[in-house]
Design a protein that fits this description.
By secondary structure, the protein is mainly α. The protein has a single domain, classed as Orthogonal Bundle (Arc Repressor Mutant, subunit A), CATH 1.10.10.10. The chain has 6 helices and 2 strands, in the order H-H-H-H-E-E-H-H. It has a two-stranded antiparallel sheet with strand order 1-2. Strand 1 and strand 2 form a beta hairpin. Helix 2 packs across helix 4. The chain is globular, with a radius of gyration of 17 Å. The two termini are 25 Å apart. Pfam families: MarR.
């Protein structure tokens, strides 16, 4: 059995990222991957703050501050006072941000369908299972 998964993984990641970037460009969203990941965090995590996004995305505070400022400038998010901690602010999607997330969700779904074309449900399930194990092994 070959343990050299690196080339296969690099090719898969490269092709996936290229496909997503092309789909985003064609949709005229003008968002980069960091913006999209942050928007997804804000959508999925209740009472989301910059600190939570920083931990989730494994980026430093200055990088997250820049992303948040850009998303605010684009009108995708707003900051609201955190009632539990006066030193932090909660990040909330605007209607424009919700529309962007809807578009991103559609593009993600289309890309996933294209990527998994020809695979059975069991193969997809197994792939996800193996990816989770490998991720835990590397990120533990």
């Amino acid at each position: 059995m070959s343990l050299n998964l690196d080339e296969s993984l690099h090719r898969l990641i490269h092709c996936y990222k290229s496909e997503i970037k092309n789909a985003i460009t064609e949709s005229n969203l003008s968002l980069h991957v960091g913006h999209i990941r942050a928007l997804k965090c804000i959508q999925r995590i209740p009472n989301c703050s910059a600190q939570i996004i920083s931990k989730k995305m494994n980026l430093d505070k200055s990088q997250i501050a820049r992303i948040i400022k850009e998303l605010q400038t684009k009108g995708h998010i707003e900051k609201h006072p955190n009632p539990d901690n006066h030193r932090s602010q909660l990040l909330v999607l605007t209607e424009q941000g919700k529309q962007a997330i809807d578009t991103i969700t559609t593009l993600d779904g289309e890309t996933s369908l294209k990527m998994t074309n020809g695979l059975t449900e069991q193969q997809i399930h197994d792939f996800k299972h193996y990816v989770e194990i490998m991720t835990k092994n590397l990120c533990a």
